[in-house]
């Protein structure tokens, strides 16, 4: 009777397993979690208690608090209330530690696959004859390829101009050519990006400069403007950018020049007019140095003109331009305007190709040559063009074929 009077409160607990079994367990509040776990295992896994490890391999979790219950504590100490839900979960098997023999074998395998260090290489090659590759010769051969390609473009431009001048619709064709050039958006500034920066309070001229320096990225341009807010040269024009030339008095605009003479005017006058159009196209396609590369190289102490020359010779590649400035500075900028020998087998093979012959009568091919001559990085664009791509592919194949022989 005393036991009944002073017995603890009986709790009804809802127990669930991961397999979906559910039942009610009635236990006094002074029952230990370990005893409760044994009762649960006896209910859902009959005979499992024959293995003493079964109890330690399972755990009870309080569903509401997601707390793992401690085996040595009582139900009361774990603050479990009547009608609470408990989860009976099997513990994950602990990760077995690798055997020492396996560790040694793995280390040995890693050592065998490890690349040799400098001392090991010198020891293994001690008996070999010394040979030092001339890196300057390799670099020079690469330069020769670029220079030869430029020479081909220079000479093909001259041929294309002569062929197009013979076309009775030459002036009309170049009206379209000038229109294509006018549609070039490379010099245009993203109006939405510019408006975002000006609305932040930045002056328009600085915002334009920042966007051009950061490839029209608003975020990078804003960072540049904040970083150079106190820079006295922040409003200076970008290096290498020439101001727009005002048309001379009486000079015709590109559109007017492209309009051409009337049919009654002589062929000589039309030829002179085409020459002027060619000059205008060349001026529109002038080399544009990378402003970031110009600034970086000028900070090293080089003059702006020689920096622009270096970038032009090295296709706007900053590292190559730096080597050119510190080296023998060959080829020179003047060498870039020299054409290939018209009697050479390479040039004759290019001109005899029917795809090239047909392409040279297209004004778009001339524009592509002009663009690649001054901006070699645009060559991919013209290689993918349906009109100019086949011509460039044939020139490349002929050059590679003759270069191997």
UniProtKB/TrEMBL annotation:
Residues 182-228, 288-328 form the UBA domain. Pfam families: UBA_7 (PF22562), UBL_UBAC1 (PF23326). Transmembrane segments: none annotated. Residues 232-272 are annotated as: Disordered. Residues 239-264 have a biased composition (Low complexity). Pathway: Protein modification; protein ubiquitination. It is found in: Cytoplasm. SMART domains: STI1, UBA. InterPro entries: STI1_HS-bd, UBA, UBA-like_sf, UBA1_UBAC1, UBA2_UBAC1, UBAC1, Ubiquitin-like_domsf, UBL_UBAC1. It comes from the Eukaryota. This is Ubiquitin-associated domain-containing protein 1. It comes from Urocynchramus pylzowi. The gene is Ubac1.
């Amino acid at each position: 009777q005393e036991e009944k009077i002073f017995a603890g409160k009986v709790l009804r607990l809802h127990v669930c397993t991961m397999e979906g079994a559910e039942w009610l367990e009635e236990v006094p509040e002074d029952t230990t979690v370990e005893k409760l776990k044994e009762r649960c295992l006896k209910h859902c896994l009959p005979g499992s208690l024959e293995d003493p490890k079964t109890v330690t391999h399972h755990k009870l979790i309080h569903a509401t608090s997601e707390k793992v219950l401690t085996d040595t504590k009582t139900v009361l100490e774990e603050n479990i209330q009547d009608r609470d839900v408990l989860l009976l979960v099997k513990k994950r098997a602990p990760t077995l530690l690798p055997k020492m023999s396996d560790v040694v074998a793995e280390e040995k395998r890693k050592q065998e696959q490890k690349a040799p260090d400098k001392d090991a290489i010198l020891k293994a090659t001690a008996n070999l004859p010394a040979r030092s590759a001339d890196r300057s010769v390799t670099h020079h051969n690469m330069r020769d390829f670029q220079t030869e390609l430029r020479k081909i473009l220079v000479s093909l431009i001259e041929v294309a101009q002569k062929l197009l001048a013979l076309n009775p619709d030459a002036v009309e064709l170049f009206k379209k050519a000038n229109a294509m050039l006018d549609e070039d958006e490379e010099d245009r500034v993203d109006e939405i990006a510019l408006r975002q920066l000006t609305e932040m309070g930045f002056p328009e001229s600085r915002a334009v400069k920042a966007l051009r320096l950061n490839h029209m990225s608003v975020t990078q341009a804003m960072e540049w403007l904040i970083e150079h807010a106190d820079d006295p040269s922040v409003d200076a024009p970008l290096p290498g950018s020439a101001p727009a030339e005002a048309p001379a008095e009486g000079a015709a605009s590109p559109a007017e020049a492209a309009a051409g003479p009337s049919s009654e005017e002589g062929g000589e006058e039309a030829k002179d007019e085409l020459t002027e159009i060619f000059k205008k196209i060349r001026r529109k396609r002038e080399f544009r140095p990378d402003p970031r590369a110009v600034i970086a190289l000028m900070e090293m102490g080089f003059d702006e003109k020689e920096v622009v020359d270096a970038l032009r010779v090295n296709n706007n590649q900053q590292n190559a331009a730096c080597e050119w400035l510190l080296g023998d500075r060959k080829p020179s900028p003047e060498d870039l305007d020299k054409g290939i020998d018209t009697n050479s087998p390479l040039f004759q093979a290019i001109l005899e190709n029917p795809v090239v012959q047909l392409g040279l009568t297209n004004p778009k091919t001339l524009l592509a040559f002009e663009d690649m001559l001054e901006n070699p990085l645009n060559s991919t664009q013209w290689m993918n063009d349906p009109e100019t791509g086949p011509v460039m592919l044939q020139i490349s194949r002929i050059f590679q074929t003759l270069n191997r022989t």
